[in-house]
Amino acid sequence: MGMTLRILLLGCILHLASAQLRVGFYSSSCPQAESIVQQVVQKKFSSDASITAALLRMHFHDCFVRGCDASILIDSTKSKSSEKDAGPNLTVRGYELIDEAKKNLEAACPSTVSCADIITLATRNAVALAGGPAYNVSTGRRDGQVSDSSEVNLPGPTLSVSDAAQFFTAKGLTLNDMIVLLGAHTVGVAHCGFFQDRLSNFQGTGKPDPTMDPTLAARLLKSCGTQSRPLNKDPTAFLDQNTSFIVDKEFYNQIRSKKGILQIDQQLALDRSSAPLVSRLAANDNLFRQSFANAMIKMGSVEVLVGNAGEIRKNCRVFNKPSSRAL
Ligand code: HEM
Ligand SMILES: *[C@@H]1O[C@H](CO)[C@@H](O)[C@H](O)[C@H]1NC(C)=O
Ligand SMILES: *[C@@H]1O[C@H](CO)[C@@H](O)[C@H](O)[C@H]1NC(C)=O
Ligand SMILES: CC(=O)N[C@H]1CO[C@H](CO)[C@@H](O)[C@@H]1O
């Protein structure tokens, strides 16, 4: 086959495939799909509201490595270290909730609903339960057949706004999308190890980071101390010190008051490229809700597998077939 023809064909396939991600994808193949996920999330949320943060972060990490294809859910094997075991994934939580939703979905509609869609739907539901916007998400994602810890390359909390933005533009998202998506730090926690450098000896100055409220820095220093600990023994701090379990625009007010926990969060309020949108989001609840929903929908469409690509896993933690088959 000629190269041009092959590219043309590939283009057609990709085009057809993208037409298949749509709201209500399971409405005839598994009409209960969205309500089954909703029930599992609701039950979990009623005993543990931190599930919203866990799912938001899981969704982000999944979508930024190989697209939203549930590659983050794969368990490592003796011979192969999967995404889950890569450094940035160490503290991702929520895997059991996805397992429960999958189990219930397999009972109702075997081999029909992808793990990638479960993450997307569950995150959407958890955001709404935590007071955030309710929005419709497209479904029809397929599950990937590759998960490799060495492919995990996620932005770190000490990057500048422009360096962090490059990770987003590489995925077809904009700087503004990043500013809005970082609003997810309106819920959840960070371990001291991710911001300890700001508390007492910032960049070797012997002083806290001057961009952090001194009272906050002193308080965090008390709970974190100066020693470093393994992640499972490291204390945490709420990313939004005011409304820590609510998906609202309060995060933006916090960073405007020098109360960002992560350096990147604080920089959002200070950098000339991001400060104007931060102050608009801080001031306008409708703008935040609409923008956050749109940005989540956009993030959930990054490099998705659709049509006949990938597979519908039966168990979200393992590929249906040996991954050597893929590629
Ligand atoms: C420049 C981009 C980003 C950076 C550098 C970043 C960094 C971090 C770090 C260091 C933590 C703390 C992890 C821990 O201590 O366990 C964290 C937590 C979190 N991140 Fe991000 N993040 C980014 C973007 C995002 C995006 C786009 C989302 C979702 C849309 C998100 C959602 C969350 C949530 C909800 C938590 C709290 C997790 C929990 O409580 O379990 N982050 N992030
Ligand atoms: C979601 O879609 C349903 C049916 O298509 C519609 O009735 C509802 O208003 C939509 N909700 C939102 C928040 O857009
Ligand atoms: C906390 O958030 C609420 C609701 O957004 C706001 O009214 C209040 O002023 C905030 N308080 C502080 C101390 O930031
Ligand atoms: C939740 C999860 O699977 N975490 C794993 C991350 O990686 C470490 C080792 O690198 C595992 O011990 C954790 O279980």
Automatic annotation (TrEMBL):
Q: PANTHER family from the xrefs?
A: PEROXIDASE (PTHR31517:SF59), PTHR31517
Entry binding sites for substrate = P155
Where's the Plant heme peroxidase family profile domain? 20-320
Claim: Ion transport is one of the keywords in the record:
no
Which compartments is it annotated to reside in? Secreted
Q: Which family does it belong to?
A: Belongs to the peroxidase family. Classical plant (class III) peroxidase subfamily.
Q: Where on this chain does Ca(2+) 2 bind?
A: T186, D240, T243, D248
A biological process from GO: hydrogen peroxide catabolic process
Main localisation, per the record?
A: secreted
Give a single Pfam family match. Answer: peroxidase
Q: What does this protein do?
A: Removal of H(2)O(2), oxidation of toxic reductants, biosynthesis and degradation of lignin, suberization, auxin catabolism, response to environmental stresses such as wounding, pathogen attack and oxidative stress. These functions might be dependent on each isozyme/isoform in each plant tissue.
Q: Active site annotated at which positions?
A: H61
What this protein is called in its record is: Peroxidase
Q: What class of enzyme is it?
A: oxidoreductase
Note describing how the cofactor binds: Binds 1 heme b (iron(II)-protoporphyrin IX) group per subunit. Binds 2 calcium ions per subunit.
Q: Which residues cross the membrane?
A: none
Cofactor annotation: heme b; Ca(2+)
The record lists the organism as Cinchona calisaya
